[in-house]
Design brief:
Number of domains: 2
CATH architecture of the largest domain: 3-Layer(aba) Sandwich
Distance between the termini: 34 Å
Number of strands: 9
Number of helices: 17
Helix content: 40-55%
Radius of gyration: 23 Å
Largest sheet: 9 strands, mixed
CATH topology of the largest domain: Rossmann fold
Length: about 400
């Protein structure tokens, strides 16, 4: 894992001045495109304060496939222009959430049974028991709601079976209108329903979209003037990003060779969520192809307190694939990214901790999302350095290794 990191902070490097970023987010049903743009602006301002830099963002350009904007960041002796593309799949998520409950509930139970009998649950316990708890959480609580409804119906039904049945159904309806919604069980059910469908039959809408994005990346790799192409997958978006790069490599096996290198980062990744399912053989083949591509650098960031990722694991080893040093695994501490008071507020808000991978930091740390997608250091360089960008950026925001050489 981290034994592959470069020990010397003095390694020479060429600053990035132009970058192309494609980001694929996770299964987030509450963030429409404009909300994602506002969140980006808010978190970017934290990045500015933490690293003593300045940033400006262009207006968003929204299409069916993506939402894109330009980010310009500057320090005393550097300037970077990043073209940021947020790959959309909120329409797929929302389509799932609009289905009636009478359909989603049995599909959720089916997904639960599928992941259990396909060996995924055992794989979660074996690799990271926190993730197994995350998997069991919505289904266990749903079972509790069912038991409460049944118990209520049986208690009332001692005198009249029909009244008991109606009471049980009414109780279940009330629980679905209350605790089911308050505990956010619906989006968790939908997440696992989608994951099962993605393994079993795929998602044609997403597949066609990724095909079109793949063509964009190939064109940029051969024609654009950017110095770095960075693809980022967060949470379940890491799975889609693997499939995206696999599509690109199928069309352009020499991607990243003889030209600008391609960097791929998985952050708070759900790669093993899918990869540990016995029948996800096509996905594991895609992972193997991406990991072995000589022109693609792959870094995987994992955090201990994030129960929605697989901390301390080598994805290749856990999926019984031949390890080859990729991805380069970085273990990071979210507590070091935030002020202590803020961290204490968030430590039990597990989804918010999971989203710290795509949020601005209060403190300089070895991992900083905005430094990776907007900063002057290549993502590969930041990933390989033990302290990330900390040793290369001065307190005034200057690039230390190139002080006085303004880009």
């Amino acid at each position: 894992m981290e034994t592959d990191l470069i020990a010397s902070k003095e390694r020479n490097f060429v600053p990035i001045t132009k970058r192309l970023v494609f980001h694929i987010g996770g299964y987030d049903p509450i963030t429409p495109p404009q909300g994602a743009y506002r969140r980006f602006l808010r978190e970017l301002s934290r990045f500015e304060r933490t690293w003593s830099v300045k940033a400006s963002v262009g207006a968003p350009d929204v299409s069916t496939d993506e939402m894109k904007w330009t980010v310009t960041t500057t320090g005393p002796n550097w300037r970077v222009e990043s073209n940021y593309h947020l790959v959309r799949w909120d329409d797929v998520i929302q389509a799932q959430s609009r289905q009636p409950l009478w359909r989603r509930l049995p599909l959720g139970i089916l997904a639960f049974l599928d992941f259990v009998f396909a060996g995924a649950l055992w794989g979660y316990f074996r690799t990271n028991w926190h993730y197994a708890v995350f998997f069991l959480y919505p289904f266990t609580l749903f079972f509790v709601l069912v038991v409460i409804a049944l118990a209520t119906g049986m208690l009332i039904g001692r005198a009249d079976a029909l009244i008991g049945s109606l009471t049980g159904l009414a109780t279940f309806a009330v629980l679905l209108a209350g605790p089911w919604r308050w505990l956010h069980l619906a989006p968790l059910f939908d997440d696992w329903i989608f994951s099962r469908i993605y393994i079993r039959v795929g998602c044609p809408v997403l597949s066609r979209r990724l095909d079109r994005i793949a063509q964009q990346v190939i064109e940029a790799a051969t024609k654009s003037s950017v110095e770095e192409i960075l693809l980022v997958g967060h949470s379940l978006g890491a799975v889609l990003a693997v499939d995206l790069i696999n599509k690109i490599l199928a069309l352009q096996p020499a991607l990243g060779l003889g030209g600008r290198r391609v960097a791929f980062l998985t952050i708070g990744s759900s790669v093993l969520k899918i990869g540990l399912h016995r029948d996800a053989s096509d996905f594991r083949a895609a992972v193997e192809r991406v990991a072995s591509a000589p022109g693609v650098f792959w870094g995987d960031y994992q955090a201990r307190v994030d129960i929605m990722n697989f901390y301390g694991t080598d994805p290749m080893v856990e999926m019984a694939l031949i390890p080859n040093g990729r991805p380069v695994v970085r273990l990071v501490e979210i507590g070091r990214m935030l002020e202590h008071a803020m961290y204490r507020q968030l430590r039990l808000r597990f989804f918010r901790l999971h989203c710290q991978f795509i949020s601005g930091n209060d403190r300089r740390a070895e991992y900083d999302y905005f430094m990776l997608v907007c900063g002057p250091l290549a993502a590969e360089h930041q990933t390989l350095m033990p302290d990330g960008a900390q040793g290369a950026i001065g307190q005034d925001g200057a690039l230390l290794s190139h002080r006085g050489a303004c880009q």
